[in-house]
Design goal:
Radius of gyration: 22 Å
Helix content: 25-40%
Bound molecules: (3R)-3-hydroxy-3-methyl-5-(phosphonooxy)pentanoic acid
Strand content: 15-25%
Distance between the termini: 19 Å
Number of helices: 9
Largest sheet: 6 strands, mixed
Oligomer: single chain
Strand order of the largest sheet: 8-7-9-6-1-16
Shape: globular
Structural class: alpha+beta
Number of strands: 16
Length: about 400
């Protein structure tokens, strides 16, 4: 019996206007709209192959080499929606194989170690939905598919596009208008780069769903955030992106990260995602911007202590003069940058900036940072020639 396969990659995205709060936890409907930048897949991506055949006995998922349960409700909801869409096609065209009734084998791999400390659920659910949509030859566009990925993990809906992406919260109860749309394609602002500082942390963070529920239920500040702060910021940030106004984009990004973490602190009992190292990074970014008398870099933090720094390519030397000075012992500079380039960052610092620095530089910062991931804005899901499933057996290669 034939085995049908398809493969895709999907990117990670990091929000610059945060999604925090569900108005419907079942459908993953948010209490506010959000905006993100999609990151390049050379550095961070999920590759997923999906296969189906009349001969398969049960839905099975292999994630990074291990068989994992597919029984969780969120994944089941995604699979059901995709099967329903496939069923519509089959009922219109009798010649189509009845894939909607067959079981699925899904094999998925991240190109970054789990130890990198980055949540991979957004890329994972985006890849799952796109791989199966391709397998089923669904005619739906990325925004329509994003509604399905959203049910897997809210932020996953934004990984269906490259560049700059908005998730419009929508109004309807069934979630039909809560989906991702493109704000600006990658090629319109491809100079956007990102440096991720992976911060050491021993404690396990409060899972995002649990954290959101607590904030929605207990924080007074949260009401101000969703009713007044975010709606205005959503419009302003989209405008800053379309105009490629980095100064404005950076200011809104930093303020929104701070606002989100303030509602976490305002939850009861409070939730702490950022730690002392994160706070040192926040101070460092403000000091660097003040030093240049210009906003060249922005920070943002998700539900954990890792910092994502956004900056434009044209300012990389200025930023890296500082970052390399402080973090040269941290893993991740090579092989992205060769020795000559790294020496260049060093000499800019030593020869041009050192004498003029008036702020405190913590030369022990590197001790609490495990790795730096140097990447940039990137495209949406891509077709992949690499396939993780053996087309004869339908099993992982
Ligand atoms: O999609 P989730 O449930 O992993 O939640 C993501 C929440 C944040 O990363 C903190 C913000 C965001 O918009 O991505």
């Amino acid at each position: 019996m034939s085995v049908y396969v398809s493969s895709t990659t999907a990117p990670v995205n990091i929000a610059t206007l945060k999604y925090w709060g569900k108005r419907d936890a079942n459908l993953n409907l948010p209490t506010n709209s959000s905006i993100s930048v999609t990151l390049a897949q050379d550095d961070l991506r999920t590759l997923t192959s999906a296969a189906t055949s009349q001969s398969f006995e049960k839905d099975t998922l292999w994630l990074n080499g291990n068989e994992e349960s597919l029984s969780n409700k969120r994944t089941q909801d995604c699979l059901q929606d995709l099967r329903n869409l496939r069923h519509q096609l089959e009922s219109q065209d009798d010649s189509l194989p009845k894939m909607s009734q067959w079981k699925l084998h899904i094999v998925s791999e991240n190109n970054f170690p789990t130890a990198a400390g980055l949540a991979s659920s957004a890329a994972g659910f985006a890849a799952l939905v796109v791989a199966i949509a391709k397998l089923y030859k669904l005619p739906q566009d990325m925004s329509e598919l994003s509604r399905i990925a959203r049910k897997g993990s809210g932020s996953a809906c934004r990984s269906l596009f490259g560049g700059f992406v908005a998730w419009e919260m929508g109004e309807s109860k069934d979630g039909s208008d809560s989906m991702a749309v493109q704000v600006l394609p990658l090629d319109q602002w491809s100079q956007m780069k990102a440096a991720i500082l992976v911060v050491s942390d021993l404690k396990k963070d409060t899972p995002s769903t649990q954290g959101m529920q607590l904030t929605v239920a207990t924080s007074d500040l949260f009401q101000e955030r969703i009713n007044n702060v975010v709606p205005k910021r959503f419009v302003e940030m989209k405008e800053a992106i379309v105009k490629r106004d980095f100064t404005k984009f950076a200011e809104l990004t930093m303020k929104d990260s701070n606002s989100f973490h303030a509602t976490c602190l305002d939850s009861y009992p409070p939730i702490f995602y950022i730690n002392d190292t994160s706070k040192k990074i926040i101070r460092l970014v403000h000091s660097i911007n003040a030093f240049f008398n210009e906003t060249i870099v922005a920070y943002t933090f998700d539900a954990g202590p890792n910092a994502v720094l956004y900056y434009l390519e044209e300012n990389e030397d200025k930023l890296f003069a500082f970052l390399y000075k402080l973090l040269n012992q941290v893993e991740g500079w090579e092989p992205k940058y060769n020795k000559k380039q790294l020496d260049g960052f060093k000499s800019i610092f030593e020869n041009e900036y050192k004498e003029r620095i008036e702020f405190f530089m913590d030369h022990e910062l590197y001790l609490s940072i495990t790795r730096i991931i140097l990447t940039r804005a990137g495209p949406g899901p891509q077709d992949s020639k690499e396939c993780l499933i053996d087309e004869k057996t339908g099993l992982p290669k």
